[in-house]
Amino acid sequence: MIELLKSMIEWDAQPRRTVEAGAPIIASGEPTALIFCLETGTATDKDGKAYGDGDLIGLCEALAFDSYSSPVTATGTCQLVAIRQDTLEAALKRGGALVWPLSRSIASDLVRRRPASWEAA
What we know:
Elements: H1 2-8, E1 16-19, E2 24-26, E3 34-40, E4 43-45, E5 50-51, E6 56-57, H2 59-64, E7 72-74, E8 78-84, H3 85-93, H4 99-113
Antiparallel strand pairs: 1-8, 2-7, 3-6, 3-8, 4-5, 4-7
């Protein structure tokens, strides 16, 4: 996914953030204005889903909701790229007028269908 994003946005111009092990990357209730790409490191969400190098963290929630519902914590030192949602939106819209709304619709459907244990805070 990172390689696809790199071709769509000015990758090197995106802000970076370092998060130490044990610190939150995403807190429940945090606005979805930023989407995080894990360049290096490891993280888990509250249900134990593991994230590693190259993963987009919480992408479906970011597309479907105004705020994150699933907290994510660094399990090792993480180097993150913070992609503004409007940057992603602009990049996807270059693929056609329907790409952004379809992406949001699909993400919304996915998060509605996820197991109930994902919803417990």
